[in-house]
Give the backbone structure.
Amino acid sequence: MTTAILSALPEEQSSLVQHLAHPQRLMHAGRAFWLGDLNGRRVVLALSGIGKVAAATTATALVEQFRVARIVFTGVAGGVGDGVNVGDVVVAQDYLQHDMDASPLFPRWEVPGYSRSRWACDATLSALLLEAASACVSSASGQFGLKSEGLSTVEGAVHRAHHGLVASGDRFVSAADEAHRLRSALRDAGHNVLAVEMEGAAVAQVCHDYGIPFAAARTISDRADDTAHVDFPLFVQTVASRYAEHMVLAFLQKL
Ligand code: ADE
């Protein structure tokens, strides 16, 4: 049984590649896939690419070409929910595409042909990922020194692992008023979104189509506000890979 570990960015994947036993690099659909063993589990590591289409192609290749049994995504996201701060982790309970709008033909956010706007993640995998994320943020509060890296977070902050709705769209949200509008519109329709990113909902839809369990953990790199463009690259360079490494290794141990 092979588990796919998807990362959005090379920085998030690099330390996992270094931990691989018996690594083998294969090219498919213009992408590199790393096969090997991680903590005694058979895995394939892949980069999703950025945006929903790239992520859907990678997810489809993982299913069709590498016959993976499950897909787990670790990456970063912008926090938009109350109390979802830089250095926290959001484990997705379900996903929605915040830029899907075929109204008035279909209700806003509904994906035509599926009669739904939300895509649930696998409950069992998500529970394991949440345990791994909680352990990771506890050690992050003491170890990772986010403030000393210049990130917009509070000195000595206690980081949290959250579980809830994540929204994906082909847009880097980098203005407080845009984040506020997006969140309020969704909340008025009963969708309480905790974080935004650019790939997860696409992978969730592909996994739904193939009947493959999917789970995702997103570390909060920025607040999707006017400093997001500063916090995001800083976080990706300094902290993201340490979070990804901790969470994935702990998760695989629990599997
Ligand atoms: N990934 C990390 N931060 C993000 C943001 N602010 N918008 C979209 N995707 C992100």
Notes: The chain has one domain: 75-254. The longest strand covers residues 70-79.
